[in-house]
Write a structure and sequence with these properties.
Pfam families: ThiJ_like. The chain is of the alpha/beta class. The protein has one domain: Rossmann fold. The chain has eight helices and four strands; from the N terminus they run αβααβααααββα. A four-stranded mixed β-sheet has the order 1-2-4-3. The relative contact order is 0.17.
Length: about 180
């Protein structure tokens, strides 16, 4: 491995000509920290997702997994027709009631730390739902404490709500990748 590392050349997703095509799995982590905004709003990330996500349509060996605010990277990535790459997919993300709950419970001593775009901004759930063709049929969630993920039927795409879902998301993602690449 040490020898291989000497010949490997690191690639930056911001390099001209960078493509996600060589990869079978793209994982979009979440988080409420303000730094995640640069990924959610990045034109480069949007371009990469607009190119890659449609390639996950089944049958495909390409997969995308996202959790929490990571789902917003997809919902904010617009196809040439202006629709989100998620417009016809089923998904979950951080539920608005959970986001608002932690925001109000900590606001006195953390300010708007738990609101990525600041106090008064849309919740992750609302932001994602606005970009779906029919949120009532496409957005799935649970307010329970048991791990919850959503696997889309049309795309090799799986999503989770927040950190307690991460282990189940990882297990289901591994299974999805194994099925899609024929392992």
């Amino acid at each position: 491995m040490k020898e291989d590392m000497k010949t490997m050349k690191a690639k930056s997703w911001t390099d001209d000509g960078f493509s996600l095509d060589p990869y079978d799995l793209i994982f979009l982590p979440g988080g409420h920290e303000r730094g995640v905004v640069q990924v959610i709003n990045s034109p480069v990330t949007h371009r990469l997702m607009v190119d890659y996500f449609p390639k996950t349509r089944k049958p495909s060996n390409k997969t995308v997994a996202a959790i929490c605010h990571g789902v917003m990277v997809l919902s904010e990535s617009s196809l040439p027709n202006g629709k989100s790459v998620l417009h016809d997919a089923t998904t979950t993300a951080l539920p608005g009631i959970m986001e608002q709950g932690i925001f109000w419970a900590t606001r006195a001593f953390l300010g708007d730390y738990y609101k990525t775009y600041g106090a008064g901004s849309d919740s992750v759930q609302t932001s994602v739902e606005k970009r779906l063709d029919d949120p009532s049929k496409q957005y799935f969630s649970s307010l329970g404490s048991s791990p919850f993920v959503r696997e889309d039927e049309t795309y090799n795409y799986i999503s989770g709500r927040f950190p307690p879902d991460a282990s189940l998301l990882a297990e289901k993602t591994i299974s999805l990748v194994q099925r899609s690449v024929g392992s």
